[in-house]
Amino acid sequence: MLFDDTCDVIHDRVPMEKVAKLTEDTYFVRGCTALLDAVGGAIHHIGNIHKYARDEDRPEKTLFIITTDGMENASRRYTYKKVKQMVERQKARYGWEFLFLGANMDAIAVAGNIGIHADRAVTYQCDEEGTALNYEVLGEAIHHVRSSDKMLAPSWKRKIDEDVKRRGGRGN
User: Fold this and answer.
1) pTM for this predicted structure
2) Which residue from 84, 158, 154 is spatially nearest to 124, judged by alpha carbons?
């Protein structure tokens, strides 16, 4: 299942012909971000996939990327404390790498609340240019993680920080 920013859950068992076409009239943001539920649920789900996978099917590296344009305000299942415990466990026990990209917030502070270090968090410009830059930077980070034995350098987010500074946004 996927979580979206509207506090609704999109289930994967609805026939496509019964799903309304997404337009500005049928899909709109209502300001609900169940960030902790999305992150906690995804960690739990991916952890179980890894747990029950054959050794040869289990990935050597896990890069868990969180991107959000809104602050937590709607979670019901997970708390900051629980998600932080989950993040720290996956990092310490299984070597997972976490990145946090947030708009309309202090991403470093929010990431810190869930156990993600400041050098793995960045605030981005929440517009077409800023979002496109996110995907470019994340593509480079993913390539680095997949093709290198070295840890991701703190400079992975430099282009995003420079973009925010250049365009006068609220970065970190």
Assistant:
1) 0.81
2) 158
